[in-house]
């Protein structure tokens, strides 16, 4: 097998122009036009709309390439296109080689007959997706009127990433191009068409069944080899097996036994050892073809065991039922060639730093590159993999059926060997939509039947025929399919949006005990540094045209103001408003996650929407487009910690405070001893009363430790404020606006987790103005920042005006006079430089929620 890349420098133009532009492939129309400065930045202000109009045109990509005699001497030469977006006509030396209509699959075309020795020409015309969608005609019985929020009408008619046409967090920029590798593949004697790996786990051993499908061209015997070695050990000492491929044989099974296997675990449960499996086809001692796979030895499925509440829904890894902690993942850019391995690794590493063990690849984008799954293998993230269908009505024609089956087979075969792959899911929210979304109901029963055909017959069959060991789920949310209560709280997975879309208070999470909440979220603005990249000074009002253009969820800026009015006082300026929304977002998601973790066993997963953005925007993300951690991502690091304490203010039906409870959640395989100290304090840190308990929390469990109403120390009557004279007269009875609850969770390692809660909404608390004193020390590897103040100081943010960093912790509550230390590792300085500790102190910006008004 010989491979020759056609990546590199091509030429591009629109078909109405004579001007050719250089474009690096993998690349696209947008990557070319942006680099060559033919267009303004589509992310700046409202440039999106002018750039979108460019995609009513057709585009041409072409290049010359050399073909040597050695390649032409091979019996077969294929053109292999790993990512063509989307409606392409491919010409080689003037002859039409083929057409494509699906960006989610790999396309192969026999090409030898079109090649000549020496210089050759490849020319790809990409037709306008917008023209195609506007001209598409459905069967009269299957008229489709639904368009997803923020999207463009007709996007379901193309097998192209739906979010390219806009979503309620992304712009309408339907790019086109060659976004993955393109190459020539030449072979003569035979090749390995497919390799399917089955794992069978026993006591102290794992048996691998390597099912090989071959294509051979000589009437001779071949040799087939498989070798396996643990990557951390010497490759020269592998487990090895070989066999003869007899005449006419196109399938062969090789069996390998691994004694004392190194078992792969998700993040937080163990290590991620990996093995390298090679399958080699030989003839007369000469290697003809080889495939290589990196695998992890593990069992991984989804348990739906019956229990007292209904049916559980959880990932079960190596026999252990785990609580999934993580978020939903979308494409990281609108220009897919800019989604580099470095950007992917930054996001995956940030997930692990925030104690994720799961990422859900959402079905409205694209199937990520091999790099994404390789990194999830290495970092220990389970991947919930949606197939690429979301929030749409689909007409299943013969052509569509053929396309989606091929797409599914291509991606299942590409990804099924990865240790991280936890499940295949048919789609995002479509079963639920057919069940009760108002805009879906007018569509015909023929389209409803097409839904069943597509997601409960065609796609599961294509998946299971090619990957019988990975769990398939028809939709998210779902209770198992067939429109049988897809949002049932006691079965399957659930999406919960009453907090946010329904404008319910954060306490509403406490009313629900979902088996697995695979989607819930709350919006915020990105930081001012990010907003500055797409606005001018006159734009910096959240209801300006530009700010609303970078807000794709209708009325969302108003929703943030509503929640702000329920929780905080009105911010004094634009920057304070941006910061306040991030605090709201973090508190909201923390409220949901901690509630579901406290009910571990009944609920077994909380994946918030969403970890990332595909452009700079107001959205539900916890990391913005430029990789800046929002308050939510820092909060996630704490509320997703393997062993984590939480406190909750419990309200009665009148929304009156009744008590504060403390819990410890242990999502690890070891028991944990924790001392819990809960103290009612005044704003100047005077201790009023303290509860203290020491408990041992068993593995994979949650435990209520202690709680109090503190009613003996609180005034009954409600007053907005209370004077010092009145406090003295009350002889130790305090107004709820003047006190807070501090809870210290003290672990055996010596680490102390500090949590605090107020007894009223922050807007009604008498928060004092606090001056935070800052000291900075320096070692060879880090800066140590000490923060100290005399009063309760909530949501203390550290940041720099120009530099971007990741702090060890951020957005903390200072609850005592003891200095709080936050580390800044020098390796976590992402942009900018510091000359030393004095420079860090001078540039450091510190603020709290009290500074916003």
Quick synopsis:
The chain is α+β, with helices and mostly antiparallel strands.
Terminal Cα span = 68 Å
**Structural classification:** alpha+beta
The count of β-strands is 50
Task: Report the mean per-residue pLDDT as an integer.
Answer: 95
Tell me, briefly, the overall form: globular
Low-confidence stretches: none
Number of helices: 16
What does this structure look like?
With 853 residues, the protein is an alpha+beta fold. It is 19% helix and 34% strand. It has 16 helices and 50 strands. The strands form 15 sheets. Strands 3-2-5-11-8-9 form a six-stranded antiparallel β-sheet. Strands 32-31-30-29-28-35 form a six-stranded parallel β-sheet. Strands 1-15-6-10 form a four-stranded antiparallel β-sheet, with no helix packed on it. Strand 12 and strand 13 (170-172) form a beta hairpin. Helix 5 (341-353) runs parallel beside helix 6 (370-379), helix 7 (398-415) packs parallel to helix 9 (445-466) and helix 13 runs parallel beside helix 14 (631-639). The longest helix has 25 residues, at 574-598. It is globular and about 95 Å long.
Task: Indicate the topology.
Layout: E1 2-5, E2 8-14, E3 21-25, E4 27-28, H1 29-35, H2 47-52, E5 59-67, H3 69-72, E6 76-81, E7 84-85, E8 88-92, E9 95-100, E10 107-110, E11 118-126, H4 129-135, E12 165-167, E13 170-172, E14 177-178, E15 182-187, E16 190-202, E17 205-216, E18 222-230, E19 239-245, E20 251-259, E21 275-283, E22 286-295, E23 300-303, E24 306-307, E25 310-311, E26 314-317, E27 320-321, E28 324-329, H5 341-353, E29 358-361, H6 370-379, E30 382-386, H7 398-415, E31 421-425, H8 430-436, H9 445-466, E32 471-473, E33 494-495, E34 517-519, H10 528-531, H11 545-549, H12 556-567, H13 574-598, E35 605-608, H14 631-639, E36 643-651, E37 657-666, E38 672-682, E39 687-697, E40 701-708, H15 724-729, E41 739-747, E42 752-758, E43 773-778, E44 782-788, E45 793-800, E46 804-805, E47 812-814, E48 820-825, E49 829-831, H16 837-843, E50 844-847
Parallel strand pairs: 28-29, 28-35, 29-30, 30-31, 31-32, 33-34
Antiparallel strand pairs: 1-15, 2-3, 2-5, 4-14, 5-11, 6-10, 6-15, 7-14, 8-9, 8-11, 12-13, 16-17, 17-20, 18-19, 18-21, 21-22, 23-26, 24-25, 26-27, 36-37, 37-40, 38-39, 38-41, 41-42, 43-44, 44-48, 45-47, 45-50, 46-49
Helix pairs in contact: 5-6, 7-9, 13-14
